[in-house]
Amino acid sequence: MCFHGEPHTVLENLIKEWEVRVISFEKDSESIWRQRDNLVKEMCARHNVQVIECVSNTLYDPEEVFSLNNNQPPNTCEELRKSCYKIGDPEQPVPKPDLKFIATHLVSTDNLYDPVKHKIPDLEFFDIKPENEKQKECLFVGGETKALDLCKIRIQYEKESFKSGKLNPNLSKPVLFTKEVSLSPYLRFGCLSVRKFYWDLKKVYVKNFNGVKNLYCPVEQLFWREYFYQLSYKNEKFAQVDGNPMCFKIPWDYHGKQDLFLKWETGQTGFPWIDACMRQLLQEGWIHHVCRNSVALFLTRGVLFMSWERGMRTFLKYLIDADWSVCSGNWNWIATGDPEEVLNPTVTFCPVKYGRKIDPKADYIKKYVPELKDYPLEYVFEPWKAPLDLQEKAGCVVGKDYPEPIVDNEEAFRENIAKLQQFFHSEKKEIFETFLNDKSALKPANSNEYKAYTFAKFLESEFDDF
Fold this sequence. Notes:
Distance between the termini: 48 Å
Order of helices and strands: HEHEHHHHHHHHHHHHHHHHHHHHH
Oligomer: single chain
Radius of gyration: 25 Å
């Protein structure tokens, strides 16, 4: 049955009507929902109703990790690991229940169900309409049955990689197309237990990995997910710049760029790799991690120099697997980067070169930017360089059938480097110059500046940048 309204109000009415004595629900690990859950618990206390909160969306109970860090989030992933080692391995998933015994003790709800009042609402109920024809297609089938089937396929995929002595095959050879379904939406909505995935992955690694074993390696991406939940657990401003201790206050510039933002969001930047990524997102609700990094870097410090908050809101709107903590944390990292790297003008992001690296045959671009499907490979990534007669022959003239680049990406990057250098060397001069000159000068502390710096350092060390 589906009920509508404020949770504490709906549940209070049901408690009275059904004479409820116990309520059990998932403990939400995201701080923005804590007030909702607290209202429910306060209401239950008034009615002498027992509340059972279970933790299963994360590997560990965030409260337990906080208690081991003086009620603070871990500054680095290494601190998180140390806390987790003290706690021990995550709990094993609960065995499948025997429903035969339970069924004999269940009370029928047939007389309580109203097919009109209690039906599951459709998109029309929320006034949500497809923005394009592609959005009408259902690419992700929800539910635990589907999630478990896909989990088996993924574990087998990882098993073959382990046998060859390799880790994280989907990072070294990313599968860009949605049909190769990711498990992230199923983890996001609780269709798949993160603990089941953790233990399945670890067991097959121990049994099959052909190389020097490190029990952390096969599950490090799950610890990355865990880390963002920890950082945001008691930080309601984690998804914004102002008031967020885990964020550099870079003076992003949106003034007069509304049109550029819209072109980025709709996949009309004139850079085929970026446009393909954004169009897949808008059409299918999912893009690979390398695509997410590309479009985020393009919008922020890489090219357009706009705040990561705007891009994050676009992701939260369209990504089927987006959740508040992980999505916010990823955008914060991409936009901020590592100060040592940001201040290095030789480390650049080029949407053309990166597209060639990830999509060398241009299969991905030609699917999502079909205007370029008849272009020879030489010009697909830079169609504006193709001779006019070739453009006409391919049926796509740049500036007419496909947009010209909205900016000079190399010039924009140089300008952004200068802005970031000014920011880091002036407003944060004492902190960063001290650290850059003497890496032993700064010790772990509770200062907001240090938390922000170590946050960036962790992410820089954990993942490959561009």
